[in-house]
Amino acid sequence: MASAPDTGTTAHSTDAPLPESVQALRTSVRALSASVEILLDRKTTMFDTKESIKQIVDSGDRIVTAVDASCQQLATGHVPIIANSLITVTREMVAEWTRFMGDRAIKTPFNRFLLMNSTNSYLASFRDAITVIEDLFKIENGIAQAIVDPEGCFNLRFAKPASAVSMANMTDGAPWPWKAIPQTLLQFTTMVERSLDNPKKIQDLSDKIGWRIALLLNISEKHGRSDDQLERCVETFLCDAQRIIIRLRIIEKVRPAKAFPLTEYISKIIDDEALKMQEAHKQLESQFLVKTTFTVMSIADGVASVEKTLIEIRDGVRVLLGTHAMEATHHVHAPARLPGRPEVLNGRTDEVNEYVELLCGCDPEGIAIIGPGGIGKTSLARALLHHRRVVAAFKDRRFFVSVEGVIDMESAAVRLANALGLPPSKEPLETAISYLHKQSPNRVLLVIDNFETLWFHDDRAAETDTVDLFQRLQTVPSLTLIVTCRSGVSPNGVSWSTAKLQPIALSAAHATFVHIAGAVAGAAEERSLSELLRAVDCVPLAVTLLARLAKVPGNPPSSLLQRWHSEHTKMTKTSDRDRESSVEISIQVSLDLLARTSAGKEAAQLLIVCAYLPDGLRPTVFEQMADSISNISEAKNLLLTFALVSLGGAGELIMLSPVRHFVLSQSTTTGADYSVNTHLAALRTIYFRIAATAPQEPSEDFTSRVSAFAPEYGNLSSYLLHLIRSEEPSQDLFDAVNAAANYSYLTNPSTALLDAFRPRLEGHSRWLADCLAWIGRIRLHRCEYALCMESLIQARVLYEDQGNVDHQIWCACLLAQSLDACGRSEDAEQELLAAQALLSKSERSPYKYLVHRDLGRIYFGRKEYEAATDHFVTAKDECLRTAQRLYAAHCSQWLAGIAVRQGRLPAAELDIQLALSEFEALGDLLGAGQCFVDLGQIKYLQSDLESAATLFARAEVTLASVGDPDALARCHWWLGKVYRDQGRKKDALDKFDASRILWESIDAKNARTNAEYCSQEIAKLKA
């Protein structure tokens, strides 16, 4: 890292000695460089603070170099007084930051926490502040114009009030320092105007300053402009004033940061400057009294007015700072300004109404607003603070104090006293409680925000201190407390009414996003937005940050969703400044708090295990993990306490999506230690056992087995995806993936696991063939015919190479089904006849029934019912011989279809009822849904429209969960026909349109033909 250059290396070196202030400045910058070197050497940060540190030190180097060069250019051995003020302020600010950062790097035992929690925002504040200072130096071509031309460089370019014109006119042509008086006081006025709310008061103040300046100029004219003592006195006054203005500019720049750690320091400096100016005024008054008796009363009045002006200015500064420093001789009570209302607070109406009612009641309890980071605790507290009923009840006795980053009770007491507007005291907590007691019987509302760092300090005394604090505050009869804390439990010491915040509803998250980013363009983007909001579990902070990103052109929801899938929490930020602008920083704060506890290591290990399970660590798995993780119960309680997990309805430990993805990214980036790898190995064994319990085919106990397995299917899929990406293929991994894929085919068809596994299976021919065949089967079920055939052809080639005849027959049958659906029945027939020929090579093939069933389907489609019947009967007999009840029921269903086509409706209805009974007994939802459609069709042909409508509606419910768009489209089509015949035009249009959309989504000739039929029906209804 660069450090400040030596004087001897300056390009403008001469024999003139540098002023002491300049030497002190370069010493301070050197100390700053050394301090940040210590921070970097300790390697305690996980975030990219190096760039900010480099910018800070580079700015310090530029300032020192420019100051050196400018002083050498003057070659006078001293710096103009007002420029020297700027150098002094810079030195003091750099020294203060160096002290703060040095303390954190060396003395504080919780370096990692402080660096992660506050130093990022602290460095950002310092970077902004030193940038302001650099601008004020007016560095051009390596020269600080504020030093070589101080008179022309201190105009801060504020908008001037009307009185400024006359003030400037009065000093036109006057020498330095007189000409600087109106400019300096104008800057004062503008600063006050920014922090006060009464425009008329500002105008009156400006007018008073204007004619007081006239008196000062009158004295100057009468007594000459060569009075060195008077000029020095005025110059000292102006110099002190400029130092305050410089500090105000710095504060204005950095005060948007929530945690600005120099507040007390700046307040003290402001008061010190005010005392110096009071002394300057006394000197001025003395000079005026000596020089004239004629204007004594006027000048005394003028000085008194300036004193009053300074007091008003200083009060404005305190409001600007959000704190209230004490004058040396007098203190005026002025509490810290309250934070504003939250920008948006959707989804919390119930909580606001409930707790406003509680706050305004006769005997309100304290309110603890708890929950994970980013869930909206502070926003809810601010909304309550500004609610009209709360304002009416508590008036100006509403106070807000943030204890973010505070780890000792003494600092917390100081912040509390400052928030109440109390003077500095050796016993700030006693002073604060005494003040609160004096407010009785008037009601007082106190919000203590971000209580977690104080409460979860690892010093055992901290727990006692926090309990004592609340109990002491509870002795104030008129006081109502609201505390916010990232925790899953309420703080001890008070009986709280607890608001345990959860993520907001999807509709509320959508409204929040639109409020910030604006309306979303188009249905596709709306769908992307909904998916994006669900992906972040509708956590308010994540939603807000995503919305702010969406305000930038070129960031629609679809683009953000794509980034989320690849970057996850890395992209949920607007800056790396603090936890309000970055989801990762917010989460890291909680992780650092956890790390400071005695069982933090075990809790962190359990958290990593939970991160692999998106549906939560269920009690049965938790009990099995107890053999691997020591103190697992204590670890669980810690995670719940720190709100890093929550309990689901079945007792499972659930992580919010942003937390889960962040923990996973950290564990994979930094590498898991031996203990974590041991725990993950235990988790692998547990979930392979779970995979072995996945239902593989319909059976009489299928429904109960699905109910037992389904809660773990999401976790199993997620963990298998992790294993697929992180380890080499093995038999047990293949078996687990195959079991999960087969279960998916029966319930909610998905190829996600198989698609991820496929590229990892190169070189494993047998596993690859099975994987491709299963992908083809699932895609056939989902009517993705082109992709289905591509996979099946590849699988069949591999089976031929392996000499696996049975699986060749299986692939041929699946290919035939796909070809037939695409309107290529001749090609489908050839595939099946070739498969029939292969049966001679495998007389006991388990797919014999499949060949005959599918040949029957081909002939059924051609209306060759006799040939179709022969094949269906043969297939059914084969199924009954091999005890395959499910496939026998399929054959009965097709035979019933032939009966319908031949007009034998009663016989068809009987066969379908028998098939339906089998499907329901075996838990085959697709077969059952298709039977309901067939029965509805029979009722429609019998003109029993009411019964038909009931059956089709029942079929819709059943088929909606199966994932077969063709079957569902067919159901919509028939229900549309019923509604059309019943005269329910609107309902009929809806069903035909739903059917059209589904068939259009299927890339097959038959589906396109059916979609055209739907469009024709829609056109007829609209005609």
Shape by Cα distribution: elongated
Portion in strands: under 5%
How are the strands of the largest sheet arranged? Answer: 4-5-6-3-7
Helix content: 55-70%
Radius of gyration: 39 Å
Counted beta strands: 9
Averaged pLDDT, please? 77
Helix/sheet category: mainly alpha
Q: Pick out the low-confidence regions.
A: 1-15, 42-48, 103-119, 154-179, 185-189, 191-226, 255-271, 287-333
Oligomeric state of the chains in view: single chain
What report would you give on this structure?
It is elongated, with a radius of gyration of 39 Å. By secondary structure, it is mainly alpha-helical. Strands 4-5-6-3-7 form a 5-stranded parallel β-sheet, with helices on both faces. Helix content is 67%, strand content 4%. The protein contains 44 helices and 9 strands. Helix 4 packs across helix 23, helix 29 (702-726) crosses helix 30 and helix 43 runs antiparallel to helix 44. The model is unreliable at 1-15, 42-48, 103-119, 154-179, 185-189, 191-226, 255-271 and 287-333 (pLDDT under 50).
Q: What is the strand and helix layout of this fold?
A:
Blueprint: H1 20-42, H2 50-74, H3 81-107, H4 111-136, E1 139-140, E2 143-144, H5 145-148, H6 162-170, H7 180-195, H8 199-223, H9 228-254, H10 263-291, H11 296-321, H12 349-359, E3 366-371, H13 377-385, H14 388-394, E4 398-402, H15 409-419, H16 428-438, E5 444-449, H17 452-455, H18 460-474, E6 479-486, E7 496-500, H19 506-517, H20 523-535, H21 540-550, H22 557-567, H23 583-595, H24 600-611, H25 619-625, H26 632-641, E8 646-647, E9 653-654, H27 657-670, H28 674-691, H29 702-726, H30 731-747, H31 752-757, H32 765-781, H33 785-802, H34 805-821, H35 825-838, H36 848-861, H37 865-881, H38 885-901, H39 905-922, H40 925-941, H41 945-959, H42 965-981, H43 985-1000, H44 1005-1022
Parallel strand pairs: 3-6, 3-7, 4-5, 5-6
Antiparallel strand pairs: 1-2, 8-9
